[in-house]
Specification:
Elements: E1 13-14, E2 20-21, E3 35-39, E4 54-58, E5 72-79, E6 90-100, E7 106-109, E8 125-128, H1 131-135, E9 138-141
Antiparallel strand pairs: 1-2, 3-4, 5-6, 5-9, 6-7, 7-8
């Protein structure tokens, strides 16, 4: 087991029928002071981020990051309590990719996309009428390597 954070190697994932991207996530030996971390609880974003891997997110844990189309983000959903008696809300954090649809609406979805022949159901969160509505749930972007030019 490695003491590194983030994925251990670059992985290639299809975003759509014709578009392929090879994301390069940054690898850290320790957590920078400007970051928060999040452990993937499942393989929803595999093969890019697998269960148990930890991503470094630029942010202070507060919402309000304006998304960019195609970006990877840590998003937080607040779920209302099931009963007034126990009045506790539940907060769920997920790693998502945000996308802008042709009609201008915004969506948050798991990064991995299944092939058209797959029987796997993939759910998306949306539509959001604009990026500001979605920004209210985003905690920060997942850190990616910056290409040297």
């Amino acid at each position: 087991m490695s003491d590194k954070l983030i994925s251990q190697q670059p992985r290639t994932t299809a975003l759509g029928p014709t578009q392929r991207v090879t994301p390069q996530l940054a690898i850290f030996d320790n957590v920078p002071s400007w970051a928060i971390v999040h452990a993937a609880r499942d393989n929803r974003s595999a093969p890019l981020i697998c269960e148990g891997e930890v991503v470094v997110v630029e942010g202070d844990g507060c919402t309000g990051t304006i998304p960019e189309d195609g970006g990877l983000y840590l998003i937080e959903h607040v779920i209302a309590p099931h009963s007034a008696r126990y009045g506790r809300e539940r907060r769920v954090r997920k790693i998502v990719q945000v996308c802008r649809a042709a009609d201008g609406s915004w969506w948050a979805r798991p990064y991995s996309r299944q092939s058209s022949g797959s029987r796997t159901i993939v759910c998306s969160d949306g539509p959001y009428t604009d990026e500001i509505m979605l920004a209210e749930k985003i905690l920060g972007p997942v850190e990616q390597q910056v290409e040297q030019r």
